[in-house]
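Why does residue order matter? Because the sequence determines the fold. Keep that principle in mind as you read this record.
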Amino acid sequence: MLQFLRNLFSPFHASLPLLMYGPLFVLLCLAALAIAAGQNSQPSDKQLSTVQTQMRNVRYHFSDAVMVEIKSLSGELVPVGNNEFPIFDDKNSFSLRINAAEIAIDSSNLANVLNSYVFARPHSPLTELSIIVANGRLKVKGKLRDKRDIPFEVEGILSPTADGKLRLHSEKIKAMHVPIKGLMGLFGIELGGLIKEGKVPGVQAQEDDLILDLEQILPPPHIEGKVVSVRIEGEKIIQIFGGPDGKPMKNIRGGNYMAYKNNRLRFNKLVMDDVDLILIDMDPNDPLDFYLEHYKEQLSAGYTKTTPDSGLRVFIRDFNKLHPAKASPIDDKKR
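Structure:
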């Protein structure tokens, strides 16, 4: 590099004034270093450590109280914090970045999200929330704890926001069965300020609309993705995720499954390099019922196969079909 710069300047060194020569030399050095750095730049460690994932027909349990239905999903597991790669046994070690998906959550599970996660702290201003779907609209009921548990009701329509969140546009607002003018009239200054300023995780207020951020309101592993459309089917809220990188999903196999591929992943006691792992439903007649916190129990009730190119196929039993009662010693001797 220095020799290149000397050669560049050699024809002019006699004619350039010394005061001009020095600063120009420094600027060219800096420019050359910047070009070299750009040429040698590499993707971040997080990008290199993402694991591609695809899911089809899965009932995914985030917690004992919160479950969603994943009809289809393509995306990536992204390590978070100081983790070098996703770890199945630690739901806080990664997030799920969604490129394209169709995910449903019913009204009771959405209410559980609000009660057990968003407004779960001891002195939460809202309590005893319930949600029902009627005529394509969401009806949210609950109590205002700061106002002596006054019952309230908000009814509105769900739609996606421009940045991929869920908007509940409030059409009817009542407190003690009496119509109220606006959300701030219902919540009051204190609670209204908390929600408006985004101090309640995943919930914000914009005039008479409540904005729900699924990236924040769902328990870990947290999701990253944009909702592009919403529809109501019975008690289910169907959300379509997509974005600039979203592509039509091509199923890699039939049946119900969760597939993971590329880079590195820790699964039970196994650390897989160049991951090729598929969790397959032993009973294809209904969705794969999966609970990350109990996946080892599901594994032990199934079996595994290794492919010729060292891939792992794990046939697991649905979580809701496990029998927690252990066999007696007499039964074990008979086997």
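The two ends are 75 Å apart (CA to CA).
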